[in-house]
Amino acid sequence: MSNNNTAVQDRQQQTAQKTVLFDVRRQDTADSQPYWESFEIEYRPNMNVISALMEIRRNPVNKEGKKTTPVNWDMSCLEEVCGACSMVINGRPRQSCTALVDQFVQPIKLEPMKTFPVVRDLIVDREFMFDSLKKIKAWVPIDGTYDLGEGPRMPERKRQWAYELSKCMTCGVCLEACPNVNDNTNFMGPALLSQVRLFNTHPTGAMNKDERLATLMTDGGIGECGNSQNCVVACPKGIPLTTSIAAMNRATNVQMFKNFFGSDHMVD
Amino acid sequence: MSRESDFYLRRLHSLLGIIPVGLFVAQHLVINHFATRGAEAFNNASSFMGNLPFVLFLEWFVIYIPLMFHAFYGVYIAFTAKNNVQRYGTFRNWMFLLQRVTGVFLVVFIAWHIYETRIQKALGAEVNFDMMAEILSNPFMLAFYMAGVIAATFHLANGVWSFLVSWGITQSPRSQAIVTYISMAIFLVLSVIGVQALLAFVL
């Protein structure tokens, strides 16, 4: 190494010789057979899985030196708030934008979250979750035929706490981690149960809380939870999913007794 | 198959696991413990339980019907899961797997146990200390019964934990952690009681 180099140039020369190995589970169409393809790309400091995938897209040549199709993946925000780039990296589901190459054992294995239908390569269709959000009415209804005026105030401390639940980005990682979300069940998954808690906490949202709980008490609802508690370990946003689930267990049980023993009021 | 009633069946499954099945298992192990006081003590206790008034009614409504529902619906639950302890080797995920493994094993064990005792009684045999001593004199059967008792105590103790979560009683991580310790204590105590009784028949 020449002595005329700056420290930065020295580091770049060193890292240019390093490479990163990727094993990618590929699938050309939704119905075709998956296969594995390996890639070896040049290492750059602070590289994440997405910048590596971009490098493969720029020069789609596999480890054997053969030209191939670029690997398809999904992404949007690149700061772990949208959930689009979720995939299984070295066996664990997470966002690829915050997956720094330095933190992984090589070869880095990339797979789609197979709990969902695979569209192509690493892209999956998370529509199941969005449909479930509709089922549980994951919104605060404020529309009326006349001005409904101001809603009830939300205590600030409650808002701060509810904000933690609102960090959910419907990324699907907790569904991928859950042993009970699979082809044998219609379980909507941990994230959705926590969303019911979020919208039932909101003072205006709480005006429809019995409707959301009723959905949790049907097929695919909270009954399917088996308490493996993988979801809370897997959640990239640190949402207290198992606490939400236990809270919704209590709420649905109370609702069940209310319904059966014939309370004459539905909400509160 | 419509699964609209799954929520209620799950809740029923959770409730029946504790009341009455869990309570019955605990009572059964305690009564068995009379064996450590000798054959006569065991036979007295066993004939007291076997000659309770309305015994057939009690057997069907406190044991057989709740147990069968818990067992068969439990097998369905066990086989709908796709276990992934390789991916998440956490304590709770292992408990989730073990709850299902012990549950399926217990269906086999309890079926065999009922065949060897209650059905033989219905066919004219007498259920007493000697009967159990003869069954357990076979080392394979002793191991099978040991496994059965330990599986049952584990399934019950861990079931207490998930019962409290499923009914929304323990919500906070701290309360769930404390109940984990309590459930492990229940497991140990009931296992010692059960295994001591089994050994009393062979030693």
What does this protein look like?
The complex is a heterodimer of chains A (268) and B (203). Chain A has 268 residues and is an alpha+beta fold. The longest helix of chain A has 21 residues, at 241-261. Chain A folds into 2 domains: 7-124, Roll (Ubiquitin-like (UB roll)), CATH 3.10.20; 127-261, Fumarate Reductase Iron-sulfur Protein, Chain B, domain 2. Chain A has 9 helices and 7 strands. Chain B has a single domain, classed as Up-down Bundle (3 helical TM bundles of succinate and fumarate reductases), CATH 1.20.1300.10. Chain B is 80% helix and 0% strand. Chain B has 7 helices and no strands. In chain B, helix 1 (6-32) crosses helix 6 (139-166) and helix 4 packs across helix 6 (139-166). In chain B, 28% of the residues are buried. The chains are: A alpha+beta (268), B mainly alpha (203). Chain A binds chain B through residues 91-92, 177, 179-180, 182, 184-186, 216-230, 233-234, 240, 242-243, 245-254, 256, and chain B through 2-4, 6-11, 77, 79-84, 86-88, 90, 92-93, 95-96, 162, 165-173, 176. Chain A: Its EC number is 1.3.5.1. Chain A: Keywords: 2Fe-2S, 3Fe-4S, 4Fe-4S, Iron, Iron-sulfur, Metal-binding, Oxidoreductase, Tricarboxylic acid cycle. Chain A: GO terms for molecular function: 2 iron, 2 sulfur cluster binding; 3 iron, 4 sulfur cluster binding; 4 iron, 4 sulfur cluster binding; electron transfer activity; metal ion binding; succinate dehydrogenase (quinone) activity. Chain A: This is succinate dehydrogenase. Chain A: Belongs to the succinate dehydrogenase/fumarate reductase iron-sulfur protein family.
